[in-house]
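Note to self: the last two entries modelled the partners one at a time, which told us nothing about the interface. This time every component goes in together.
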Amino acid sequence: MTFINYASREINCKIVYYGPGLCGKTTNLQYIYDTTAPTAKGKLISLATETDRTLFFDFMPLELGTVRGFKTRFHLYTVPGQVFYDASRKLILKGVDGVVFVADSQEERMDANIESLYNLEENLSANGYDLLKIPYVLQLNKRDLSNIIPPDEMVAELRRKDEPVHEAVASTGTGVFDTLKSVAKQVLTELRKS
Amino acid sequence: MTDAPIIMHEEQFQQLRHILNKLRLDSFSRVVFLVDKNGQQIAAQGDIGDLDTTSLASLAAGNVAATGGMARLIGEKEFPTLSHEGERESIHICIIGRVLLVVVFDDRSSLGLIKLRVKQASRDLSAVFDEIARLAEQRKGSEESLFAEITDDDIDSLFN
Ligand SMILES: Nc1nc2c(ncn2[C@@H]2O[C@H](COP(=O)(O)OP(=O)(O)OP(=O)(O)O)[C@@H](O)[C@H]2O)c(=O)[nH]1
Ligand SMILES: [Mg+2]
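The predicted structure of the combined assembly is written out below.
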């Protein structure tokens, strides 16, 4: 849910990174955090297990600059991908303005991608949203590995509408900002319509 | 979208800050702030110093969301207030409609006093938020022009 403050001239939006366990959601945020100027970001908060799996969420605020005199601030969240954390995933989607689905390109993770995408659709609709109507981007991550599925096959399986698709290697940053930009753009374009 | 955006104008913003400031003084607390249920900070007052209120806001919202989830599992609607008492610093959170009032206090105050003052302030805050909702409804369609005028170039320029 966008929050527009005319008094402090700020727009705040919420973007959620979704996807199966270990697909690289936290790595996307970590890369954004590591490569943005200190003035543009706040802390990266990670509520994680001792083995660095996301337990509840990761969070970081990011300022992108001004539009028409309004500071645009994006709140980036990741969900925990492990199947049994479903209750937490549902909570984190509340008030979402845009979603990035991070798919794991490895062959053996295709079933997990499909299951997680179904889960996203379910949890969105439990919160009153429709995947087909919200700002949404598909990221094909881990393109550096050898046992991966060709992009067109992944797209055929995972693309839900005409959403932008970005190939990525989150661990080195390839495609990370392209993904963020394309979801952020859709969120701002949506503001224009509201 | 289920929720309309919260649109805050100067007058209501000042009213909120005024109520928060009064609450802070009356309750002898360190910092008081308002957060929407999704973790976005709306306003803050007090001795903020280097306190990271943005992070605190998102964690407070996560905390309320998690305990609200537990409440529903045991057949409650929500837990309207949450308190966490530390050795010296403590936090009290109160749910007011779609926003959370978060009070950070230390041993200069007490939970009893905080709860009492929060109760009074929440009535005033509710009234302001009702007004914000009423204005949003009334101005629907008339004031959106600001964002309607955003061009593709404006959006692109953010990323360069
Ligand atoms: N080779 C390779 N490894 C990656 C890539 N992206 C992430 N990883 C690694 O995959 C592992 C899991 O990444 P995370 O970002 O923690 O995964 P996650 O999606 O947050 O997982 P959960 O928190 O359990 O949902 C880490 O060891 C990352 O370094 C990539 O593009 N290529
Ligand atoms: Mg993670």
